[in-house]
Specification:
- This protein is 39% helix and 21% strand.
- The chain is built from eight helices and twelve strands.
- Strands 2-1-3-4-5 form a five-stranded parallel beta sheet, sandwiched between helices. A four-stranded antiparallel beta sheet has the order 6-7-8-9, covered by helices on one side.
- Helix 1 links the parallel strand 1 and strand 2 (27-31).
- Helix 2 (34-43) runs parallel beside helix 3 (60-68).
- The protein is elongated.
Length: 228
């Protein structure tokens, strides 16, 4: 059972979410505004927050940024907005996932479980080495030629998944299913955006790759530069 905080101003939707999530076995607290949600998140930290964007006092995106200044609690943004630039901005601001309204209780429950599973304690695993790149699943640290890289949790998960399959082409569908826990598909742009961020931190570009190689219409593979 997860302890959830639902930040949603619409009473009818808030009540429906509470009933549905409790039916799924979760303990649910609620907040009707952004500031009330921030206060609840700090005073009684939940396992995960479901955060609406259209709040009456403070925009949900601003709530997310304020929350990230004081807490690393997982956040799933629930929104009717589906424009790609805004979704990218939310991910960069610290959202762990997002879900577009309208959505069903089963889909939200699956997203909650996926985020908590992904951020839970990892099983014992040896560091993964691909050329000068070392990915340590236990410490969640990455070094490149001896220098530490500062990756977001999702960037780390993406890189680790590829590092477990060095030299193999991994499809975007597999990445969405295994890293984003979206087995029914999702936006390929989500994968492309995170790959772009990873390339920048690895000191390469899609036009001049060293480690991350795109195979057009198929997927991407991670390989050591000397193996190319």
């Amino acid at each position: 059972m997860a302890h959830l905080l639902v930040v949603e101003d619409d009473p009818a939707l808030r009540g429906a979410l509470v009933r549905a999530l409790r039916d799924k076995g979760h303990a649910v607290a609620t907040a009707p505004s952004g500031m009330a949600g921030l206060d609840a998140a700090v005073t009684s930290p939940p396992d995960l927050i479901v955060l609406d964007l259209g709040l009456p006092d403070v925009d949900g995106g601003q709530v997310l940024r304020m929350l990230r200044a004081v807490s690393d609690v997982p956040v799933i943004v629930a929104t009717a907005r589906d424009e790609e630039p805004e979704m990218v901005a939310l991910l960069e601001s610290g959202a762990d996932d997002y879900i577009v309204k309208p959505f069903g209780a089963a889909q939200l429950d699956a997203r909650i479980k996926a985020v908590l599973r992904r951020l839970g304690p990892p099983e014992a695993e040896e560091p993964l080495r691909v050329g000068g790149l070392t990915v340590d699943p236990m410490s969640r640290e990455v070094t490149l030629d001896g220098h530490s890289l500062d990756l977001t949790p999702r960037e780390f998960d993406l890189l680790a998944h590829l590092a477990r399959r060095p030299g193999q082409v991994v499809s975007r569908r597999e990445l969405l299913a295994e890293v984003w826990q979206q087995p029914l598909g999702g936006a390929d742009k989500t994968v492309d955006v995170h790959l772009s961020w990873l390339r920048r931190k690895l000191g390469e570009t899609a036009q001049s790759p060293r480690y991350l190689h795109t195979v057009r219409t198929v997927g991407v593979k991670l390989m050591a530069p000397e193996a190319g």
